[in-house]
Amino acid sequence: QVQLVESGGGLVQPGGSLRLSCAASGFSISTYWMNWVRQAPGKGLEWVASIYGAGFMTYYADSVKGRFTISSDNAKNTVWLQMNSLKPDDTAVYYCARVLRGSVSTGKFEYDYRGQGTQVTVSS
Question: N or C: which end of the chain has fewer CB within 10 A?
Fold first, then answer.
């Protein structure tokens, strides 16, 4: 069955970096758009970044552009999110999700599978 398992979250100081991983199983990521999304306390789900075809196409939300990098390895069936210059506003649970439909221009997507999430806390 389809599974998405995130890891790599933790507590980091402002300005620091973290690298999140999403290990996929039960399907090949090479044929799907994969997103990272996040949910801050008391807020809705926010799109962060999208990738297709082992990085052939990548897109980012304005709030993370220039600081975050999404990448993937089809052979490892894994998606990563490198997060640099982290800010307290980046504090959230980060999820890896398989896209059903949506648009990067609106940042609105529907997902058919999502992982359990990994907590990222940016605080001094």
Answer: N
3-state secondary structure of 31: helix
On whether the CB atoms of residues 50 and 12 are closer than 8 A, the answer is no
For 5-52, the pLDDT digits (tens) are: 999 999 999 999 999 999 999 999 999 999 999 999 999 999 999 999
Mean pLDDT of the chain: 95
Q: CA distances (Å), 47 to each of 39, 59, 61, 64, in order?
A: 9, 10, 7, 10
Q: Is 118 exposed, middle or buried (0-12, 13-18, 19+ CB in 10 A)?
A: buried
The secondary structure element, H or E, covering residue 108 is strand 108-114
